Amino acid sequence: MENYVSNVIPHLQQWWPVLIVLAYLIGVIFVLVSAWQAINQKHRFNRSPAVWTFWAAVLLLNLPTFMDSLSLTVFNQTSEQTLSYMPPSSPGSVYIQFAVYGIATVGIIGIARGICLLRETPSQAMSLSRGITHLFGGIIAVNLVTFLRGIGATIGGDVQTYIAKIIG
Are 80 and 68 in contact (CB under 8 A)? Predict the structure, then answer.
């Protein structure tokens, strides 16, 4: 079973550039939608949706830089360092690496989803809190190893020992 999981890990890493390109495409679509909303006569007195859509487009077109800025702000390391995680050699290290990469992939999707939810803020007030939750949840998911090490250093004792044994 360990051989199957170790064969899946490189393929999971190959999805990260695909997700970034998808974010770029969605960003280009948002730019076009924003331009249409800005010149549409129906939205003549309310340009707020066009502005929020434009900001979402800018953030999606700069997703790697945006992820790095959030990672540096919260965890003081770039997302590229986090996405290249190598666990210590132990019997279950392949499974741990697979889980970390799977959670990081979900985190990238969560960041893009949070940006898309922020775009809907003018029409739905609940989207702001949901979008911010997705953004920070995605950042924690991308930086899972650093987050767990921080929890271990904060609590200390047995928790820190177990985290160090599991993720290194």
Answer: yes
Contact 160, 148 (CB under 8 A): no
What would the two tokens of residue 34 be? Answer: 């924003």
**CA-to-CA separations, 128 to 21, 90, 152, 158, in angstroms, rounded:** 25, 42, 31, 38
Q: Using 50, 70 and 90 to split pLDDT, how confident is the model at 89?
A: confident
Domain that holds residue 162: 2-167
Contact status, residue 167 vs residue 145, Cβ threshold 8 Å:
yes
Query: Mind listing the pLDDT tens digit for each residue in 15-65?
Result: 778 888 888 898 899 899 888 888 876 766 667 788 888 888 888 888 888
Any alpha helices (H) in the chain, and if so which ranges? Answer: 2-13, 15-39, 48-61, 63-75, 79-83, 93-119, 126-142, 144-155, 157-167
In the chain, the number of structural domains is: 1
Q: Is 42 exposed, middle or buried (0-12, 13-18, 19+ CB in 10 A)?
A: exposed
CA dist., res. 132 & res. 20, Å (int): 20
- For residue 125, what are its two tokens? 């007030």
